[in-house]
Write a structure and sequence with these properties.
By secondary structure, the protein is an alpha/beta fold. The chain folds into 2 domains: 57 residues; 248 residues, 4-Layer Sandwich (Purple Acid Phosphatase, chain A, domain 2), CATH 3.60.21.10. The protein is built from 7 helices and 15 strands. Helix 1 packs antiparallel against helix 2 and helix 3 packs parallel to helix 4.
């Protein structure tokens, strides 16, 4: 396996081209599989004890997106957790599970994929009756406590927060009623969470897109990967499912990460009017081997004190 001799690529040339074109671009140029290119990259990393960073094809000409983060993972794990909707009070089971799996799997990155806060007091939706809603300041403090618990479990991993529609209420409200406060410290949500890098999306190895939402409806994961042309992990719909999709380019996945809030969370009680919810409490484990994504896995709530993962029931 590897670059054929007729290509004339030395190890130094391979490294230089890999950094310029990425695995996909290099494979296309020389008519190879992405897997063979990634395998040679991994062998050279081991041989020379270096990290050969993946760059987007034609990186020097690429448009920069200020609200997109790019990270590179050769071998390791990324945990993606969506829709915490943190309120003051005890943490949910899936939050505690996320802390547990950070310690157990030692991920290279942890991505909160939107809606860490709920922010009902600044919602565009009118209150239902006299429902009691938490103060925004109390939600922020609760979120700080929960994120600090994740931080302590992560050690040196990347900490990324993709903003969701509930998160964006914080700045949208201020920009609407007090635009003159722009650029003053504290008016941006990430001012309150300095250890987390915020974005609208995070791209991993240029092949996997993590963002809060894209398409809607019960077939959203399928339509997301169909229209994105990439593996894409979203939240927002709380449904927790992994949908494979194959075409001439190979296999990719549409993933709904579920929610790490309890599905009967008080934030959801009134507006769902006690109706059945096709939701599941869960989060996503992404495992990369030689720069390639293995099939995404879900950690799912089993009962009030346990989660299920890889055929095991884990009591927390």
């Amino acid at each position: 396996m590897g670059i054929p001799r007729k290509s004339g690529l030395s190890e130094a040339d391979f490294i230089s081209l890999f950094e310029e074109l990425g695995a996909t671009g290099l494979a296309r140029r020389y008519g190879l599989s992405v897997r063979s290119v990634s395998e040679r990259r991994a062998n050279l990393e081991q041989k020379f004890k270096i990290a050969i960073k993946t760059e987007h094809p034609l990186a020097s000409k690429r448009k920069e997106y200020p609200h997109r983060l790019n990270i590179s993972i050769s071998n390791g794990v990324v945990i993606v957790a969506s829709d915490a909707h943190y309120w003051p009070g005890p943490p949910s089971l899936m939050h505690r599970a996320a802390v547990h799996f950070c310690k157990r799997l030692k991920p290279q990155a942890f991505i909160f994929n939107g809606d860490i806060i709920d922010a009902p007091q600044i919602s565009r939706h009118m209150p239902i009756g006299w429902e009691k809603r938490p103060q925004l300041a109390d939600e922020i403090e609760a979120a700080k406590d929960r994120l600090h618990e994740i931080e302590l479990a992560l050690f040196k991993a990347e900490k990324i927060w993709n903003l969701g529609n509930h998160d964006s209420r914080f700045e949208t409200r201020l920009a609407t009623v007090a635009p003159e406060y722009a650029k003053i410290h504290g008016v941006h949500l990430n001012d309150h969470f300095p250890n987390w890098r915020s974005a609208w999306s995070c791209w991993i190895n240029d092949d996997v897109v993590v963002k809060h939402r894209f398409k809607g409806g019960i077939h959203a994961p399928h339509n997301n990967t169909l229209w994105a042309g990439k593996t894409i992990i979203t939240g927002h719909l709380h449904s927790a499912k992994v949908i494979p999709f194959d075409d001439y380019n190979g296999t990719r996945y549409g993933v709904d990460g579920g929610c790490i809030a309890d599905t009967d969370h008080k934030a959801f009680t009134d507006y769902t009017e006690d109706g059945p919810k096709n939701w599941r409490s869960a989060f996503v484990i992404l495992t990369f081997k030689d720069g390639l994504l293995m099939q995404p896995e879900l950690v799912l709530k089993w009962n009030e004190e346990s989660v299920q993962f890889r055929g095991d029931i884990i009591k927390l």
